[in-house]
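Each record in this resource describes a single protein on a pair of labelled lines. The shape at a given residue is found from the number at the same position. The record below illustrates this layout:

***
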Amino acid sequence: MQDRLWGGWDPYMPAASVSAQLSVKKMQAAILLGLCLLMPRVLSSLTTSTITIKSGHLEGQPANDAGIKAFLGIPYAAPPVGNLRWSAPQPAPASSAVRSATAFGASCYSAAPAYPQDGPVSEDCLFANVWTGALCATEARPVMVWFHGGGFQFGSSSVPLYNGGKLAEHGVIVVTINYRLGVFGFLGLEELDRQGTPSGNYGLQDQLAALLWVRENIGAFGGDPENVTVFGQSAGAHSIGILLASPFSTGLFHKAILESGAYWDSEHGSLRTFAGARAQGAAFAKQLGASSVMQLRTLTAESINNAGSWNASTDPGLTAFAPSIDGYVVPTFPAEIFDVGKSQKVPLLAGFNAAEGVAFLPRIVPHVPTAGYARSSKTLFGPMTPAFLSLYPGDTQAQANVSALDLLGDLVIREQTFETIDRQANINRQDVYAYYYTYTSAYSPIAVHTAEIYYVFGNLGPDPLLGPTGTPTVADVDFSMTISAYWTNFAKTGNPYSASASLPFWPKYSMPSDDFLELGNNVTVIPNPFRDRFQFLSSLRMNGELPPSWRHDFTDN
């Protein structure tokens, strides 16, 4: 009943039926509004933009024409400043005053000068934003919590692309959050370990704190704290993959969507070790001339951020502050957790894009001329080189160009995403839905890393990185409605397919059928497009770790 009442618009519905559906929705909303107004003691009303959460009262934006209210810039944790710099997130302070929630809070510091943050920047940046169409706090709508990408170095919940208003029209409540980035989010130091929890992953702890905030407060917005789906892209997807392998996420979410990412692997291998993170932290403190954490905390945020800046042409897993094994939030390599069936037991929707490697092109292995590709292959794969070259051939320069780009996309994104799909289904025995994104149009000409986000959120505007690439057509809008329906159906029920929405069938992933859904110009079921390549790369792991030697090979790429 809830699915029918709050389902999104059917993109395949005949035009003659749209007015009828509109009348039904208006009637349903009117009935629910009447119940809210007539029985306030039974049903807590959300007919105004003022609500109360655990930390106090919020005044949000009035409902838009679609009935969606936005509550922006809500602190979900205390400002991580002063002695709380490089500390586990603390609860947001309570206040008796009504807080304005009509504008985004500050973004966290960006470690990437090439990608400046949206709006004001501050260490005081742990804010959440909520979009809801609920009229009563007791509606218990499904909740979708978005973790943004940006290599753990840049990005913000205030980026217009992540505005949750359109997605919330599908009957879900959308939450977006900030989390600490770069050196503020991922500094590991022995002294910090002695001061509290093991250090190095404060950004991940922020995400856990945000999920705890959702569990404790989302009911006030009409959301169901027992039906929370986390979804994210790139670093956001890597975050979720890592949290799926973390004991601290138990019970904080009930479904997960990974868009292009999982373990924070790269062309330089798996994520940084405990010892490696502390060596990196010690070198950073020495660089700043600080002999203690106290001295580091007296430095300005700007000086720390500038000293920890990241060159966008390099792998942030190698050259920047990013997730590491801390023996706490991240107990070991995430792949090892998935391999032994100890990841969180939740349904999964996950996939990757056709042209993932293009976004990371400066990091491609040396491959020109073909002799250079042969040398790179031998350096990385040693005695496994013949097997590698049978899957990534390089006999001609054209072949080497394609194979080097395929390898880059596989190592940074695709192979690890496949592993989460395969292990969560076949080892952890959860319902899993896999996709391969290939959709292109004049508006979105390449199925590059990030391309699907516009369609998921329904925000078909200019690309914030590439600029405008065309005007969305009716086909683009229809495709957006399709992919948004799949995502929100999954959030509602754990199954992206709904016969009532006239969507193409999406089967569960399982062996031996190995089914993926191609989200392309023709949405159809296909076999795993790269299984042989993925199995080869997966075979190189030892206890979940890719070859450690890769961290020292081609460190200039």
